[in-house]
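Lab notes, practical 5.
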Amino acid sequence: MEIKLEQKDAADWSYRGEGAANIVLAYTGSSPSFIGKVMRITKKARNGSSPKCDSNQSVLTDEERLLWRNVEELVTSPTKEIAEQIYTQLVMSPLLGSKHVDAGIRVPVTRDFLECVEKNVIKQRPALRIDVSVVDLERDFVIIMSDHSLFPGGVLKDEPCISVEIKPKCGFIPSSEFIAERNSVKRSATRFQMHQVLKLREQEISELSEYDPLDLFSGSKERIHKAIKDLYTTPQNNFRVFLNGSLIFGGLGGGIKRTNAVAGKAFEDALEGIILAENGLRTTSFIQLVAEAVYCSRVLDGLLEVQRLDNFDIEGAIHAYYNIVCQPCAVCQQLDEARPPHKCSSLHSIHMDESLKIARDYLIAATAKDCSLMISFRPMKDGAFGSPHVYLQSTNQSFNYKVNFIDLDLKPLKKMVDYYELDKKILNCFTQKLEMEHKDGNARTMDKTVVSVELLCSKCRKKVMKLIATIEGITSIVLDPSKNTVTVIGEADPVKIICKVRKFRKSAAITSIGPPKEEKKDHDPYKKDVMKDTKGMVIPYTPKTCQRCDVWYVVNDDFYSYCTIM
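Output from the prediction step:
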């Protein structure tokens, strides 16, 4: 008997998150048919229309039916939900591996159910998402699939499940011959890095992410660990963690900026009982666990292979698009007619089948660049065997794990025009940033920055010296313990200098900034740690170590009649 979800069933589904195209709900009720499942509901643009298709009409355009003519079920799909399910099942699953891809099943719903769901989740949706999209109430079906933040069967007693969702992004730097010379920066900077600059300018993010996709896709255990650590530090909407299906780290839809002390402490506490490490070390061990699973599973190798189907870059693929839609190429029209023919003009003389392959491969690669990776872990019981497992050396624990790809959405053919325009926008923004940095670099002058900081002992001085020395553009560093000051000369930004020093002494402050002056050195720097007696004789002595720098210190017998050891 077919199940149809009605208004009374809406209360059993809770908001999990959302992307650009769908809202994801998790099942919280008691029906065996839905335990351990999530639902994907299609969205539409606010104030936008969503015309319904009858069973004899395809949801694809004429050009898209030509593009996907080798996948008959996809070509004849009457709704968007069916088309996306078929696309996931027949196109993406063979490429990424069926054990890592879940196409889900279609379940009919009533309009009352969708209206009630929309009311229930409105308070949990990010404002940014609410402003641009709403639940599409004209849909007759939703997609039900396994909740990949859990193991099959849902939450089991005494078997906690912790899962991480990662958006890997594009894992390679393009080398297409169709990339214009003026855009050669593409061959040295990642798309993610460049897009971050645009997002910062448009205030979608408040700071640049430290994450580099090339680290995650490198195949190097050390670089993979660095990538996971950077994602944790600046998660944005690219890193989330769930415990027994409930979000414990990351944002519901808009992401979070940087992991602060409060969020870090809450996450550390949430890991108690799962990661058997001492307090303060559980997060570090969890990052190691995720990195180990990514390294051992090698699933990103397959994802990278699919991403590399885009071997023309959008600068080449856009010309194939105009061949398919049989329109004059708007890109070629933008070029100066007086210039010699460009490389991309040759793409307009290729066979239609080749144009179709270029566009098809590009859209499949776009899906692979925009998907998410879900890795779920469950502590193994002694002597238990089963699914693939990883060993966490820091806690002497073994974990079963499973890996799935989600959000494998079908990209519309017309989206290629948007991709091209976005590419231009990203490049313009990033190029402007590089030009400004170049101008600033040429105009940069030597500055003398004086920082006031407590220099209580030789260890204090070494720590401060070591921190400042990591900053680029420094010519000299002079420490004056008698005045508790550090004088830094060079092209380095004073803000970077004080930020570094405050990692050691929060009370540090900038005393002055200005051009350096020639100063006569009337003393030997190697006489810093010497004393003179009342007769002027030099007497060597052992520097003291202050309480802040070590767990012990030494005091003179003049003040105490005993030795204190802490």
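Observations recorded by the TA: The mean pLDDT is 85. The two ends are 74 Å apart (CA to CA).
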